[in-house]
Amino acid sequence: MTTASEAYDVIRSVMEANVPLDPRIPDEIDFGALPWGELPWTGRPPHAPLVYRWFGEFGPPLPDQPAPFVYTVFTAQRSDVIEIGGGRGANRHRNPAEADILVFVPNGWGQRVATDFAEHFASLFRAYRDNGVTVDSATVYPGGPGSEIAVPGMDNEAGNYFWAGVGIAFTFDLIG
């Protein structure tokens, strides 16, 4: 059985263990042939870390030079009893929950790149059923300019970014 905190940890650990590569990098590039392993048009390593931000946690300020980042909001809803056990404290409850993953890329990278990043995260959770978490759906939705949305809990300006999102709907069970 899983608590809300444990379900949150499952979602977070799956995301952080599977950092996507920059989708703008063509597969045919020989990274060993490039000086210092950098791409000539970006000036940064091809496997630069994607910055993760989580609702309710302090993160570093957005850089002066926009770089892609992910912002995730986890919400659990009211549980329902799905199985009556052996008395008080032995009933099984099913909690529906959601993780809204917002992917931000610098303006100019385009909707395709933002959506490719979002698709990476959606693919991690489609048919996911492990550690007490059962994913019902993982849906990518193309976004738009960051200036058009107000991200809950994020006090930084997202106007220099384009965004796409992923909605992960899942359940977790607990005994109580």
What would your notes on this structure say?
The protein has 176 residues and is α+β, with helices and mostly antiparallel strands. The protein has a single domain (4-20, 48-175), classed as STM4215-like, CATH 3.30.2000.10. 16% of the residues lie in helices and 35% in strands. It has two helices and seven strands, in the order H-E-E-E-E-H-E-E-E. Strands 1, 2, 3, 4, 5, 6 and 7 form a seven-stranded mixed β-sheet that branches. A hairpin with a 2-residue loop joins strand 5 and strand 6. The longest helix has 15 residues, at 111-125. The radius of gyration is 19 Å and the shape is elongated. The N and C termini lie close together (10 Å).
Describe what is shown at a glance.
The protein is an alpha+beta fold and 176 residues long. Helices cover 16% and strands 35% of the residues.
